[in-house]
Here is the input.
Amino acid sequence: MARRLASPDQPFFVRTVLRCYEFFASLQFAVVLIALLAIVLGVGTFVESAYGTEAVKFGVWNTWWFTLLNALLAVSIFCAAAIRYPWKRHQTGFVITHIGLLVLLAGCLMSQRGGIDAQIPLIEGDLGRLAYEDSHSFVLTLTDGESDPGATGTPPGEKQETIGPIPFRSGPFNWSEYPGATAAPVAGAKPPAKRSRFPWGLAARDQGLLYDDGSLRLEVLDFFADSTAVLAPSVSLRIGSDSFGGGNAAAPQSMWIPVELSWQPNPLAGGTPRHRQTVGGGTVVFWKAASQAETEAFLASGPDASLGFGEQGQLVLAVDDVVHRVLVDEAIANGRQTIEGTNVSFELTDFEPRLSAVRGRVFRGDDDSGEEMVIVADMPEVTVHAKRAGVYGVLWLEPEVADAAARMQGKAKSRIDVIQGSDRKLYYRCWQPPKLTAGPLSPDGKSVEAFSMPMGTLAMQVERFLPADELEVVTLPLPFDKAKPPSAKRRAAKVRMTVDGASEEFWIAGMPIEPSPEPPNSTERKTIKGRGRSVAVTLEPDAVDIGFDIALNNFERRLDPGTSQASHFSSIVEFRDDDGKPLVTQPVTITMNAPIDFSDPKTGHSYRLFQESFMGPWLPGDPLFERFAARATEANGGQPPERLEASVLTVNYDPGRGVKYFGSLLIVAGIFTMFYMKAYFFASKPKASRARAQTPSRPTEELVTV
Here is the structure.
């Protein structure tokens, strides 16, 4: 039992200190603290199971309050042992156990503060020495002058300075998912799911001001733990029904097809942005209206079924508030004619049946030169309007009879046109001959009727709408995915950068971890102009130089029979010094579940390397192959490889490993001493027992009373 040190006759300060000492040494405090730590460890296990290792490190193991609990445990252990000083021989095991616990906690602190758990991606035939951690930091690159301080180097005669890395603790979730966040992070995006089952707010995040030297100021306003880059203006739709008949009308089912469309300024030039998609036997088209007049003409330029379509279609021209409808074959025969109620005339010159397009000229007032107009029936997004004359046209064709197979191949004439109006709102018109519906399209998910099919009527809903005046790249959040490794996530931060009093807000994407690092692109580096200087902002992965090179000689991957699932993969590597000389006599093989240990001869640091995963394979013609194959080709004597694969190794450095092992041995030795050796080596005989042993025994008869 601990001694009582405080007494009423002592000075107040001394008495207070001694009572605190007694409190930390008390059994009651130790029991409560150990019970609390047990609860936290149990909760941490569930958090890791639900959200992954990155989340439990952020929310539990690396928090200030968990460090405080461990510090209080260390204080309790120390006080419980120190208050019993001077120790008796039979307390030897108790003291050894408590010293072991303190050594173990010290080793854990060393591992937490100085440990490394990072990844090294390596291409076959290449080498690397930088291990990338799962965190990112900001780097500011200052260049004197007006040039852009990009990754191409400093222009001649200009001075460049680097500030950073500036640490940035972000957390494993999008900031909009934490309790207290209100609106959706991006216009048109769905409200995020809240992470309210655990007090994530107790974990520190670097929000707001990160750096300020008076003339440079870096603030983080928002953060996405995982994101994607999409073009804007763009619209994400879904077309389908909750009661689609399918092949069994008696058992309707829910079927929705996603439609992703983005504005393509010149769709005839090709490219990755999609402006049309075939779905449900029809086509969905998206483009951006250039003016309010084009927006109004889009809604008003429907065909008149009573007029018919003729052999070459019905042409609808909208000018000001007037809508003029005419059959193409008649208009070509009649030559130049005036639109009633306006000072505009037009002349159709020819019709191209293969493109279902009509060509003509539009004249306004006394302008006899006219303005050319080309109207394509099935591709309204490429129509050339007579915008200078204020005339917008649409060509509607007679619907052809098509079977179901033809409709599913996109050969039917049904079409949904969607535009971003000049007011940055969505409008649509659904053309299922001979019926046309048109109107505004709500971005809040309200359904409008789309295509009618024999198995049911399909509805259309807006999932996401990103308006923009010019083509731009927009960063959108992705939902949390525990199975996705941190190295595969695209982090992004919304930053406010102030340079010499001028501020700009922008989203910047974190640079990815790649086997062959590339210069940052336009989404990964932002440049802000100041007075006679410019500042580039990048969000770079934290890298650790392990002190030696690892060369990947060969990567082997075997698949399960009949599948594409890898059953085994291993790396054959060499360790080399700064001069390229081998540090080991022969290559080392690292396989799954069989790590290897290697000590750096310069620093003495002992590293443990694991085979974590792989990237690829990449074949010739793949953009990644062309990017990564340069150094492999050089190492192979100019002969390009037939394929490339990358191995991802985990590098672990634990500076407290030996300390933790030593502490654990002390704990075992102390427990062994307490429970197995105390009775034989440290037990002292009671005084009464010794007195009885020294007193001669009296005859039994003397003890009997007669």
Summary: The longest strand covers residues 533-559.
